[in-house]
């Protein structure tokens, strides 16, 4: 199993807008995409603020490539979500991870 942790740093004051846009437009597309599963979605409360962190799982790297290509080709993503969401973003970081043999998540 492959895990991807995405950390988005939002512009100050954009958290509510981001979460509303994500829930209404991005989440339905992503949850319907074959080969990817939402593991967790967080927003920071203490420490570095204005961040959302989400973790997705994929069976393998090829499934990730296929899933993200499917998302990128979806008009609901490119037309309804991205144009509204991009002005909220300040930075993005993606980390791909695999589980240690003793991790509860495999």
Structure, briefly:
With 106 residues, the chain is α+β, with helices and mostly antiparallel strands. The protein has three helices and four strands. The mean pLDDT is 96.
Structure description:
The chain has 106 residues and is an alpha+beta fold. Helices cover 38% and strands 32% of the residues. It is built from three helices and four strands, in the order E-H-E-E-H-H-E. The chain has helices spanning 15-31, 61-72, 75-85; strands at residues 2-10, 37-43, 51-58, 89-98. It has a four-stranded antiparallel sheet. Helix 1 packs antiparallel against helix 3 (75-85). The radius of gyration is 14 Å and the shape is globular. The termini are close together.
DSSP strand content: 25-35%
State the secondary-structure class.
alpha+beta
Number of helices: 3
Instruction: Give the averaged pLDDT, no decimals.
Output: 96
Provide the helix percentage: 25-40%
Which spans of ≥5 residues are poorly predicted at pLDDT below 50? Answer: none
* Intertermini distance: 6 Å
Strands in their spatial order, largest beta sheet:
2-3-1-4
Rg, Cα atoms, Å: 14 Å
Shape: globular
Give the beta-strand count. 4
Give the topology string: H per helix, E per strand: EHEEHHE
Largest β sheet strand count, sense and barrel closure: 4 strands, antiparallel
């Amino acid at each position: 199993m492959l895990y991807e942790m995405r950390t988005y740093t939002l512009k100050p004051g954009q958290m509510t807008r981001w979460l509303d846009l994500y829930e209404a437009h991005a989440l339905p597309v992503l949850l319907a995409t074959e080969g990817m599963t939402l593991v967790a979605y967080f927003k920071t409360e203490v420490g570095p603020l204005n961040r959302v962190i989400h973790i997705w799982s994929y069976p393998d790297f090829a499934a990730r490539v296929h899933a993200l290509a499917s998302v990128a080709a979806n008009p609901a993503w490119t037309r309804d979500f991205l144009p509204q969401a991009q002005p909220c973003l300040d930075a993005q970081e993606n980390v791909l991870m695999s589980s240690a043999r003793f991790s509860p998540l495999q």
